[in-house]
Amino acid sequence: LPDCYHFTVKITFDNNARTGKIRQHLDSQAQFRTCNRKLIHQDSNFTLKRRNLLVGLDCIVLFITIISFILCIRSLWFGHRLCKEIRLYYSIARAAENSSVNELSLK
What we know:
The protein is of the alpha+beta class. The chain has one helix spanning 37-106, and strands at 3-14, 23-34. It has a domain at 3-76.
């Protein structure tokens, strides 16, 4: 049988001085207990359910993260295409503007 321990932890926050500084006191006690097979069985069933729940939650978070990453990359790609399109538009518009100014100055 595995070894079992029971930990009792007490954290005390002391603000009696009212100076804005809070003292913390940590008291912990460890007690060795003999494990009961029935007790371990009950906890392992609960632990298995909890583990399955956490794995499911992790899968959902991973799926949402991947979708978010794909949408972010898509947004950056569209922004890059828009920037190229604006540069092309202004290079054509300025070329047409400069040619009309040159025609006016020649006349």
